[in-house]
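User: tokens in, sequence out, please.
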């Protein structure tokens, strides 16, 4: 393997019933009428933010180690004209740890359907970042009739293009008891890199510190083992778009390449595109929704 190929691989592996609550986040008393709800997922309560009005609703899913606030710029923007929903996935943010201890892509997909049913949603436009690209693909394949559109934001397609023997040492290292909070933080620091805005860096690392530790290695392992995105996505016949960071070191596993999607690129940003350049992401979302 050449030096360039080794560097690219190293970068790739670093990637990788509802009840209203009385609490509100700072600044929530706006025209968006944000409500925080507690929804029963398939293995515990999920913290949900719901606001705006109109159908189909836009449902935004954060990536590994994040929480619903990763979508704050998009939630505030979208709710001026439509209903937008985001939630903390199991083991993340203010949601419960999985009471069954299960952290798989299929479990996250089941939680999404639980949220849809609890909120009484019809068709949804799904927006997913990073890891949640796989959740979007699995959900659209299993419930195509419930999906009006898919938007992959610097999101995973699958890992079919990476040899299993190169992923196995990474899986074993991250499953080790010695791989803890410091190692997770170092990995994310590397992913943030020099292009992340200071506010993005602070928000991402703070959210990472709240993850249920077993969720991290378990979901990374599931991502590395996900290799059949195409067959799931083929069952969905609707519109899809990818919004990705330009000069992406993870291009081989990204949704745009794996699923051969129309895509738009945003320059000068880290993996957390929606926080670094919210205006660019919001404009791309608006154009997609205008269809």
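Assistant: Sequence out:
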């Amino acid at each position: 393997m050449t030096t360039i190929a080794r560097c690219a691989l190293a970068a790739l592996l670093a990637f990788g019933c509802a009840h209203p609550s009385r609490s509100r986040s700072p600044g929530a008393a706006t025209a968006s009428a944000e409500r925080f709800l507690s929804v029963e997922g398939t293995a515990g309560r999920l913290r949900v933010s719901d606001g705006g009005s109109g159908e189909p609703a836009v449902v935004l899913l954060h990536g590994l180690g994040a929480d619903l606030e990763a979508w704050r710029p998009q939630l505030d923007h979208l709710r001026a004209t439509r209903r937008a929903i985001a939630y903390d996935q199991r083991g993340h943010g203010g949601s419960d740890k999985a009471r069954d201890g299960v952290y798989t892509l299929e479990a996250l997909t089941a939680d999404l359907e639980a949220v849809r049913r609890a909120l009484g949603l019809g068709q949804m436009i799904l927006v997913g970042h990073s890891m949640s690209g796989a959740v979007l693909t699995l959900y659209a394949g299993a419930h195509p009739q419930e999906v009006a559109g898919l938007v992959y934001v610097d999101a995973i397609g699958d890992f079919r293009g990476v040899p299993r023997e190169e992923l196995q040492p990474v899986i074993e290292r991250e499953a080790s008891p010695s791989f803890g909070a410091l190692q997770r933080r170092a990995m994310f620091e590397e992913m943030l890199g020099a292009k992340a805005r200071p506010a993005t860096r602070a928000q991402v690392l703070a959210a990472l510190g709240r993850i249920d530790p077993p969720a991290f290695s378990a979901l990374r392992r599931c991502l590395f083992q996900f290799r059949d995105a195409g067959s799931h996505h083929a069952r969905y016949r609707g519109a899809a778009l990818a919004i990705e960071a330009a000069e992406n070191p993870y291009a081989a596993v990204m949704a745009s390449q794996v699923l051969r999607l129309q895509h738009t690129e945003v320059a000068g940003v880290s993996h957390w595109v929606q926080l670094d350049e919210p205006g660019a992401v919001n404009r791309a979302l608006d154009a997609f929704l205008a269809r």
